[in-house]
Structures are given as C-alpha cells and as structure tokens.
Specification:
There is one protein chain. The protein folds into two domains: 89 residues; 112 residues, Cytidine Deaminase, domain 2, CATH 3.40.140. Helices cover 41% and strands 15% of the residues. It contains eight helices and five strands; from the N terminus they run ααααααββαβαββ. β1 and β2 form a beta hairpin. α2 packs across α3.
Length: 221
C-alpha cells in the first residue's frame, strides 16, 4: 500500500505529530526524510533499501548513496546532512566546554571528527590566550596509512584566525595510538617552527578508537 493510501492517522507524519518521534520505526523516520519515492518505487520500499544500506555501510559517502536507485542528489544530501548532525550532537561534548584545559578535554572535543573514518586526517585546533577555541581546520585527509601536511599550512591558519596557540591532532584508523617515527619527526619540526615564530604547538594528539596519545602528557612537547 502506498503512503497516500494509508489512513491519515497511520501516516508517519501524522503519527509523529500525535505521538512523537520515538513512536516511529527507523523506516518511518526515513520516509519522512525522503518525502517521496519514484514512479517505480514507493517511499516505503525506498526507505527499506536505504536503511539496509546504512546498516551495512554505517557512514556512506554521497557517491555510495547515489548508487541506490531512487536516490537523487537532493535526497542523498539530505540523508548525509541528517546523519552528520546526529553524529555531532551525540559525540560532541557539552556546549559549556569552550576552553581546552587538558589533553583529555581536547580529545573529547575532537574525537567527533574521526568517527568511522578509515583514512588518516590531520586537524588543528587554534586557541586564544585563555585556551579557548577560536577555530578548527582539517588540513589533510589521506590514505589509511599515510598523512602528509606542510607546516606552513598549520601556521598560516593560525595567523588568519589570530590564534596564540595550536593543538594538532590526527587519527590512526588501526586504533594503535603509538606514534610512528614520522609522527615524532613531524611534531618536533612543528614545535621548533612554533618556538621561532612565538606561536607554540601546545600538543599533538593521536586519536585511536577509544583512546589517545598526547605528546604533551608524555613530556615530548
């Protein structure tokens, strides 16, 4: 039965209004997001296929979603935006945390950037003299076993944002947070440049699945 053929009180939107979002199944929630099906596939069938795909992929890309027949750019982008918003709201720390007071605070703030990432990504947090975040920037996203970023990109963004301190962080998709030799050499290079420019690297944090490694905590910065 098509959605428009259902009694009004059984339609997802009407049930959402009357009983709240918790009363809807995952498929019904997707029906509301997708809004409509196609000429050959009703919205319920499309929602079932999308849900099955999401369960398998966990965090698909736009290109992967577009492989599902019946999903165009508008529907796929809406799904990605909704998924990302939900992820950020669940994984982000309290909005009251605006000051980085420790490596653990930095880790809690930044781990949302690496959720389900299978590639190495290199970010920087830019701080003011009170250690409050004034900006954040993804500087590189590479292959699963290699991340390359030039130091000038790290400091260029700091000057642009008027920062007085920098915390660098990247992930190890393997989950092993032990720094590689390249991690150590690159960190030392950044620290030296920061000392010369009087724009200190406060920490470099390697993020694993549920843990982290802080160069500052280990006395290496």
């Amino acid at each position: 039965m098509k959605l428009k053929e259902l009694p009004e009180e059984e339609r997802p939107r009407e049930r959402l209004k009357k009983y709240g979002a918790a009363s809807l199944s995952n498929i019904e929630l997707l029906e509301i997001l997708l809004r409509s099906g196609t000429k050959t596939k009703d919205v319920k069938t499309l929602s079932e296929e999308v849900l099955m795909y999401l369960n398998e992929k966990e965090f698909p890309t736009l290109q992967e979603l577009l492989k599902i027949k019946g999903l165009g750019d508008a529907k796929a982008l809406s799904l990605l935006a909704t998924y990302e918003l939900g992820k950020r709201l669940v994984l982000s720390p309290s909005k009251d945390i605006v000051q980085i007071t420790s490596p653990n605070t930095a880790y809690l703030y930044t781990k949302k950037f690496f959720y389900k990432k299978q590639q190495e990504c290199f970010y920087c947090l830019y701080l003011n003299p009170q250690k409050q975040i004034v900006g954040e920037k993804l500087l590189f996203q590479g292959t699963i076993d290699k991340s390359t970023v030039h130091p000038r990109e790290v400091f260029k963004e700091a000057y642009r944002m008027g920062a007085t301190g920098i915390i660098c962080f990247h992930n190890h998709p393997s989950g092993n947070v032990t720094p590689s030799q390249n991690d150590i050499l690159f960190t030392n290079q950044l620290v030296t440049i920061g000392q010369i420019q009087e724009l200190p690297i406060l920490d470099h944090i390697i993020v694993g699945k549920d843990n982290y490694y802080s160069f500052m905590e280990h006395g290496e910065i």
